[in-house]
Amino acid sequence: MTPAGDPAAQARYQVRFDQGAEGARRIAGAADVLVWVDQVADAAPDGEAAPPVPAEALAAAPGAAVLVAGLRDAAAAAAWILADQERLGRRSYLAIVAAGRADGGFAADDVLAAGAVVDALTELGIDDTSPEAAVASFAYAGLRRAVAHLATASVAGREAVAAGVDPAVLRRAAARDEAATARVVRER
After folding, report:
1. Is the distance from CB of 176 to CB of 147 less than 8 angstroms?
2. Degrees (nearest 5) of the Cα angle 14, 71, 44?
3. Distance, CA of 127 to CA of 122 (rounded, Å)
4. CA angle (150 as vertex; 33, 77 as ends), nearest 5
5. Is 147 strand, coil or helix?
6. 35 and 94 in contact (C-beta within 8 Å)?
7. So what's the pLDDT on residue 47?
8. 19 in helix, strand or coil?
């Protein structure tokens, strides 16, 4: 766990962003809510389980509520977070974590989906974002009209298609706000 005084913890910001289980370890230690974003895994056919949150990421956020989110439920996740913050009666500290690729490479699809979550939070007035979260949000905002294509054309998208996932399934999972319910993995 990264000490709160370490700049990598982004502790001075309400909305923090990083990538992978190691990123969760850096920013989720004092978070009230961890949001795990794995866009291609999120393309599982309807009725299948939500993308798994790695044990290391869960362990990095002891006592935090944990959600999984993607492009299809970014607004629902943000609304859940706002309601949770109102229940707490204080500012919630959030760790938005893009799953990233297994090989440690850059995952454009996950960063865009995480940016959609940050963008949805900003629309609700939760906008004390770290520079890292702001970059993810502005990447999403700037590419909003192309995210379905990018989710399919990204390295993870092409790998999924090569493994037999229908590109139409990937595009449907990249349709922003198709789902109105937040996917809560763990309550606080």
Report:
1. yes
2. 125
3. 5
4. 20
5. helix
6. yes
7. 45
8. strand
Q: Give tens-digit pLDDT for 145-187.
A: 999 899 889 999 999 999 999 999 998 888 887 888 999 999 9
Residue among 98, 174, 175, 183 nearest 135 (CA): 98
Give the Cα separation of 120 and 75 in Å (integer).
5
Pick out the chain residues at pLDDT < 50.
Answer: 47
Residue pair 56/161 in contact by the 8 Å Cβ criterion: no
Cα dist from 48 to 52, 65, 158, whole Å: 11, 21, 21
**188 residue type, one letter:** R
Q: What are the residue ranges spanned by the domains of the chain? A: 8-186
Q: What are the residue ranges of helices labelled H in 15-100?
A: 20-27, 55-60, 74-88
Q: Quote the tokens at residue 33.
A: 């809510």
Q: Could you tell me the pTM of the whole model?
A: 0.92
Structure tokens at 81: 């977070």
Write down the H helix ranges in 89-130: 108-123
Q: What kind of fold does domain 8-186 have according to CATH?
A: putative 2-phosphosulfolactate phosphatase (3.90.1560)
Amino acid at 45: P
Structure tokens at 34: 């961890």
To the nearest 10°, report the CA torsion of 104, 7, 18, 143: -110
